[in-house]
Write a structure and sequence with these properties.
By secondary structure, this protein is an all-beta fold. The protein is built from no helices and 6 strands. The protein is flat, with a radius of gyration of 12 Å.
């Protein structure tokens, strides 16, 4: 996949955002079945750059990711 697209996994995860060579790359939203979601930048299928993690109970982490951490 290349460019903007939406992918749904059988597990219930959904990613809507930018892709490059079939991996998450650019800005996107990764939602999980339980209601948690990650909004922000991805590079090489990992969280990289600014974004936030929102839990189903509305708690949030906002900040910078580096190599998925």
């Amino acid at each position: 996949m290349q460019g903007f697209g939406i992918f749904r996994w059988a597990s219930g995860r959904v990613y809507a955002g930018h892709w490059l060579s079939d991996v998450k790359n650019g800005v996107g939203i990764l939602s999980f079945k339980g209601g948690n979601e990650i909004v922000g930048e991805f590079q090489g299928d990992k969280r990289e750059g600014y974004g936030y993690y929102k839990w189903a109970d509305n708690r949030r982490f906002k900040g910078w990711w580096h190599q998925n951490k």
